[in-house]
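Please fill in the sequence for the structure shown.

STRUCTURE ENCODING:
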């Protein structure tokens, strides 16, 4: 309840697994380890067994509240899943969700105008192309074999020395050529430096060639259907990554992958989502599935391993070496992706275990790899990735920010979905709180941009000190909760929540560590090149979260450096933009390979100065206030 769904579960199965089996998604940020406390459910009737040491208070036990991930089934049950424990993947309208995850707010026109000059226009040469051929009919003077005749005709149009094809095409070639009166369309694909003859069709279908570009994020998955022949985006879809039920961050998912059938579940979850999104796009735009000849995916290193069904365990084991960074081109069907049966799957190359193809894509689409001036690209997320450089060098690092900015690890945190508090102001005179929620709905919790706004507002009106501790002036809104003091933003009676919506000192501590990880990683990269923030021409903020961000709030808390505001540029989903460039241009794809090989991975954990930088950033905005001259202290 309240979805009124029934699941059949074996004795000793967890409530979490039972819920998942019938499509009820419960928040399990820690991947079922029992430590995040996000999966609380109410057992209305029936017998369960739960470990006595689970993170449930005595008062909650009296109300039959349990952790779904640790509580096992021992009879027929009726279970209520409260709103704050649900992962509502579809609780925004498609339009709202698509706009949020693409980063297309009011800033979208500004983003396009600022970045237009940075984006290189690559020559149109899709990774898979279709060519219509009229073959000369064989005779006694021209007795080339059917396959040689076909390849000769292709080479008259394209300068291709070596053309490979599979036996399945050869077997049906003779009949097909004669039945089609020697008029056919061939589909050619670039496959690791070789041109492959993917498909042969009767007649002229050269104008019907489509591809899919996907950004597989830890939190969200975004995809586009692209007309490869006419360089046109036909449609976009976005949804939350349902792997979140197995853990909110890549480490949790890697750990889950080692459980029985864990890797298979993670793999199937992402491919099922891609197939569903693809199917919706194809049906909406009345495209024949057989005309979708390629799909290109980008994402962090762990997400690409899980997409391919490759064991990711070595990513988190010293010396942190992934199975692959450069993924061989393969049939999409080998990964369980449904397009043309002969269609190809391309993956954007990554750099290291924690700097993946999404960073490569972002560097490509932002254009920093070819600028004379030095810029930095920051993707703020669970695994924050930072790239620094210009035409001469590229340096990248991963900042383990944790999932706090994604709404996990904080008491009232939630994803950017309906009812999430995303903007907050506090009146300096009355101390009254005003807020805005996504979808203008009753508040259910707080998302990442909301938390940044809250902390900045608390700092501005001096309700917290620079260490994140509440002052006495906040007393009328303070409550004592299990983790200590908490500031009430919205009382239970005004919220769509089972309790008050609060921010606690423990929440502030988690968010302080997350912002310190991003800032110190960026600072370390810049210092490593004997530079300072003043030498940086542009700071690109990537990802859907970036476009929700209030720049002044981010600088106030010390997440972003105190630089000229015009230097900070939101680029939305730079990973998807790069993927789109690549599927439309082999030159862009080759450039991405060059970028991935050029990027030097900087391992922060072995840098002698990183811990000093990190500790110095564990303060609002920073220990060294000279670094933030525009912030009123």
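FILLED IN BY: designer on duty
SEQUENCE:
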């Amino acid at each position: 309840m309240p979805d009124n769904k029934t699941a059949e579960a074996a004795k000793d199965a967890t409530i979490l697994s039972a819920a998942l089996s019938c499509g009820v998604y419960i928040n399990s940020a820690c991947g079922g380890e029992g430590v995040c406390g996000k999966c609380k459910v109410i057992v209305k009737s029936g017998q369960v067994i739960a470990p006595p040491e689970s993170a449930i208070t005595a008062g909650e036990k009296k109300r039959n509240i349990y952790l779904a991930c640790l509580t096992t089934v021992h009879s027929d049950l009726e279970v209520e899943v409260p709103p704050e424990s649900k992962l509502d993947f579809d609780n925004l309208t498609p339009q709202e969700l698509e706009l949020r995850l693409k980063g297309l707010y009011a800033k979208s026109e500004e983003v396009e105008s600022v970045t237009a000059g940075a984006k290189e226009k690559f020559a149109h040469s899709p990774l898979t192309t279709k060519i219509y051929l009229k073959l000369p009919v064989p005779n006694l003077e021209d007795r080339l074999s059917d396959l040689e005749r076909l390849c000769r005709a292709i080479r008259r149009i394209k300068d291709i020395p070596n053309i490979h094809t599979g036996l399945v095409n050869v077997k049906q070639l003779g009949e097909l050529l004669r039945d089609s009166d020697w008029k056919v369309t061939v589909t050619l694909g670039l496959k690791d430096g070789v041109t492959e003859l993917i498909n042969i069709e009767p007649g002229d279908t050269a104008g019907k060639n489509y591809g899919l570009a996907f950004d597989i994020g830890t939190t969200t998955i975004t995809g586009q259907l692209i007309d490869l022949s006419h360089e046109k985006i036909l449609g976009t879809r976005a949804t939350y990554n349902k792997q979140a039920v197995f853990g909110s961050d890549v480490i949790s998912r890697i750990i889950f992958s080692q459980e029985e059938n864990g890797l298979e579940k993670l793999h199937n979850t992402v491919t099922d989502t891609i197939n569903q999104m693809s199917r919706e796009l194809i049906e909406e735009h009345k495209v024949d599935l057989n005309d979708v000849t390629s799909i290109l995916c980008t994402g962090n290193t762990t997400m690409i391993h899980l997409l391919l069904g490759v064991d990711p365990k070595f990513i988190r084991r010293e010396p942190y070496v992934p199975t692959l960074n450069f993924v061989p081109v393969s049939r999409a069907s080998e990964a369980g992706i449904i397009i043309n049966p002969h269609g190809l799957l391309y993956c954007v190359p990554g750099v290291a275990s924690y700097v993946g193809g999404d960073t490569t894509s972002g560097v490509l689409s932002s254009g920093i790899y070819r600028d004379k001036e030095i810029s930095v690209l920051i993707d703020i997320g669970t695994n924050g990735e930072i790239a620094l450089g210009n035409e001469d060098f590229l340096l990248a690092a991963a900042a383990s920010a944790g999932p706090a900015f994604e709404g996990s690890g904080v008491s009232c945190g939630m994803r950017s979905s309906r009812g999430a508090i995303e903007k907050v102001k506090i009146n300096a005179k009355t101390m009254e709180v005003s807020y805005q929620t996504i979808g203008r709905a009753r508040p259910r919790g707080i998302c990442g941009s909301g938390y940044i706004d809250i902390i900045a507002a608390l700092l501005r009106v001096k309700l917290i000190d620079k260490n994140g501790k509440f002052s006495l002036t906040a007393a009328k809104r303070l409550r004592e909760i299990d983790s200590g003091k908490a500031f009430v933003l919205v009382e239970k009676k005004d919220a769509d929540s089972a309790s008050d919506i609060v921010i606690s000192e423990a929440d502030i501590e988690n968010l302080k560590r997350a912002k310190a990880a991003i800032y110190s990683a960026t600072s370390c990269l810049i210092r490593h090149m004997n530079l300072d923030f003043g030498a940086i021409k542009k700071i690109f903020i990537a990802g859907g979260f970036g476009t929700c961000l209030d720049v002044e709030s981010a600088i106030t808390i010390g997440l972003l450096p105190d630089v000229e505001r015009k230097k900070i540029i939101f680029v939305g989903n730079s990973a998807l933009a790069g993927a789109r460039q690549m599927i439309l241009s082999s030159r862009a794809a080759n450039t991405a390979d060059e970028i991935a090989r050029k990027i030097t991975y900087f391992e922060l954990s072995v840098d002698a100065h990183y811990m000093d930088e990190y500790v110095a950033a564990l303060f609002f905005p920073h220990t060294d206030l000279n670094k933030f001259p525009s912030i009123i202290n």
